[in-house]
Amino acid sequence: MAISKQYLKSRPVCKVTFTVPAEEANEVVVVGDFNQWNPEEASLKKLKNGNFKGTFEIPKDSTYEFRYIIDGNYTNEIEADAFQWNDYAGTENAVLFV
C-alpha cells in the first residue's frame, strides 16, 4: 500500500493518491474524515496490474483518520503517518497528515 501527496500552490488542498495492491479484490474504497466516511464517494479504480488507485483533493493543514474497505472488510494503510485508537470501532484508524 502507498500514499503519495502533491501540494498545490494555487489552492489550499493536497492531492492525495492512495494505491492499494489487491489483485483478488473486486472493490476497494477509502473512507475517512475527509469524505465523511462515505463509501459512495471513495471508490478506487482497479488497474491492470492488480492495484487499486485513486486521487482525492483534501484540504491541507489538517489531520484525517481513514481506513480502506476491501470487499467489505476494513483495513489500515500500513504506511500511514500515524495511527489513532477509535473507541467506536474498537480498533485503530490510520492517520493522514496534510
TrEMBL record:
Highest taxon of source: Bacteria
Residue ranges annotated for the Glycoside hydrolase family 13 N-terminal domain, each copy included: 15-82
Pfam families the record matches: CBM_48
Gene3D superfamilies referenced in this protein's UniProt entry, alphabetically: Immunoglobulins
Name of this protein: Isoamylase early set domain-containing protein
